[in-house]
Design brief:
The protein contains 17 helices and 2 strands. The protein has about 525 residues and is mainly α. The chain folds into 3 domains: about 25-215, Growth Hormone, Chain: A (Up-down Bundle), CATH 1.20.1250.20; about 220-275; about 280-525, MFS general substrate transporter like domains (Growth Hormone, Chain: A, Up-down Bundle), CATH 1.20.1250.20. It has a two-stranded antiparallel sheet. The longest helix is centred in the C-terminal third of the chain and has 40 residues, at about 475-515.
Length: about 525
């Protein structure tokens, strides 16, 4: 079935008139361009991870309230989630390279300001602006890859590098951040982005092509605002549930997100020139690949939601030691993402995705056996998970963007990245809520009877609070509290790992059955 049959009519699109037609096979210029894009993706991923290591120093120097600290951590993700589709569509309309370079310049400037922010309020504002700039990076880099690499095999390798760059950023972020925080102030973690973005601004105009849809209409501000408001409300509501349980604020945010989302969908269906052509969802490959990608991210959070806390608060590792312990997971993602383009030449994508999700289920089942002192088992679990999931993300990303018309690659990239943000938010809210309920339920029966009431409330809040509180109690009481809190946390980790293992098995079956019509070596043009 072709796209016209699905209601999506290809339009006449060309490269920007200032650019020559790109060759069918990528050359040196395109591969250098890929390296530049990969660096931008690496910094984007690093910025998602390094701040968590700096939280104690930020708390000590800027003295934010608890609410301000949450906004410092979360507002970046809120803005990225809300603006991914908008920035992807904007790139299709005014030029993908133009949007990318503009976002890179803004990211560099705001990073410098954030590094020297004198108050919590200014840091929150900077984090929000970094989210706006960061939202340009993922969809613009991905859609440019599909413009630069027209040969299917070369494009698979390029997407593998793209996925590997995000994985590398997640791996080296804690390492670099830990080293910087060991010797410098908390703001130094923001300066990691500046030289990379400067390199992108220098080399980008020379090695990256421009692409836009010459028939595109003007950007719809109302649709953009509805999209941002929808995503912020939904992600905020999910995170609120994870942090505080189900409450009026969280439910109100979720209801508002659903209502605003319905208004956004209605506007896209009724406008002659929608910001996001929802007929993309009529494409079977697009739908299933997006679902697999979202559940894959959900599964990742079944691991990452707990593992950093496990290393630091259960095993007692320092932030730098935790960064080193997390490195094998990043290495596994890099290896898996680079092997996938070669394997998919001879193995149907459905079978590779199904096998990857099945392997991740095995890793999660291994996680249910991790105890209070199982460092090596935890490291082995991370390798199995990352090796299994890395091919999944690269292949599904290719299927999502490759099944869309070329002129809508930016919008499809935005949908792909927005799906990833939603998957992460669902993982945080659902798995976080389950683990918190189990943690508090276990402690209700296992905390010492002579524990003061105020200390008991603090211990039941989070494992981090329990670790801090245990140091302020008499030795025998503190040891008993710490042992109970760690056991309760590990129990919650086991249960959520089991739940995500079931989700991984289910999506493995769905992907294998629904995508098996795509032959080996072909990831584009199948509905």
């Amino acid at each position: 079935m072709d796209r016209a049959d699905e209601g999506i009519r290809p339009v006449d699109t060309t490269l920007d008139p200032t650019e020559s037609t790109l060759p069918a096979h990528a050359g040196r210029r395109e591969w250098i361009g890929l390296g530049v894009l990969a660096l931008a993706c690496l910094v984007y991923a690093m910025d998602l991870t390094v701040l968590h290591l700096a939280v104690p120093m930020i708390s000590a120097e800027l003295h934010p309230t608890s609410a301000q600290l949450l906004w410092i951590i979360d507002v970046y993700g809120f803005m990225v989630a809300g603006l991914l589709i908008t920035m992807g569509t904007l790139g299709d309309r005014i030029g993908r390279r133009r949007v990318l370079l503009g976002g890179a310049a803004a990211f560099a400037v705001v990073s410098v300001i954030a590094a020297f922010a004198p108050t919590a309020e200014i840091l929150i504002l900077c984090r929000a602006l970094l989210g706006v700039a960061g939202a340009t990076l993922a969809p613009a880099t991905l859609s440019l890859l599909f413009t630069m690499f027209r040969d299917a095999r070369q494009r698979s390798i390029a997407v593998g590098v793209w996925v590997g760059a995000f994985s590398a950023g997640g791996a080296v972020g804690p390492l670099f951040g830990g080293v910087l925080l060991e010797y410098f102030w908390w703001g130094s973690v923001f300066l990691l982005a500046v030289p990379v973005m400067a390199l992108l601004l220098v080399l980008g105009p020379k090695v990256l092509p421009e692409y836009r849809d010459p028939a595109a209409g003007a950007l719809d501000p109302v649709s953009a605002a509805l999209c941002v408001a929808t995503m912020i409300a939904l992600v905020f509501g999910m995170k609120k549930i994870a942090q505080d349980g189900i409450g009026a604020t969280a439910l109100l945010a979720l209801v508002a997100g659903v209502v605003l989302g319905a208004l956004f969908i209605h506007r896209q269906l009724t406008r002659p020139d929608p910001m996001l052509d929802l007929r993309l969802f009529r494409l079977g490959t697009f739908r299933i690949a997006l679902l697999v990608n979202i559940v894959g991210i959900f599964v990742v959070f079944g691991y990452f939601l707990f593992i950093a806390q496990y290393f630091q608060l259960v095993l007692g590792l320092s932030p730098l030691e935790t960064g080193v312990a997390l490195a094998p997971s990043g290495i596994g993602f890099i290896i898996g993402s680079q092997l996938a383009p070669r394997i998919v030449r001879v193995v149907r994508p459905a079978y590779l995705i199904g096998a990857g999700m099945a392997a991740s289920a095995v890793g999660l089942l291994m996680m249910t056996q991790v105890g209070a002192g199982s460092l090596w088992l935890a490291l082995a679990t991370s390798m199995v998970l990352s090796l299994g999931l890395a091919p999944v993300f690269g292949i599904t990303t290719e299927l999502i963007v490759g099944s869309a018309p070329e002129e809508q690659a930016g919008a499809a990239s935005g949908v792909s990245e927005t799906g990833a943000e939603l998957g992460g938010a669902l993982g945080i809210s659902i798995l976080g809520s389950i683990s918190i309920a189990l943690y508090r339920g276990d402690l209700a029966d296992t905390l010492p009877a002579d524990l003061p009431a105020e200390a008991g409330r603090s211990v039941r809040d989070t494992l981090g609070a329990a670790v801090q509180t245990s140091t302020e109690l008499p030795a025998h009481l503190g040891d008993a509290v710490l042992a109970a809190a760690r056991a309760a946390f590990v129990h919650g980790m086991h249960v959520t790992a089991g739940i995500t293992a079931v989700a991984a098995v289910a999506i493995s079956v769905i992907a294998t059955v629904r995508l098996r019509h795509i032959p080996a070596g072909e990831l584009e043009g199948h509905e």
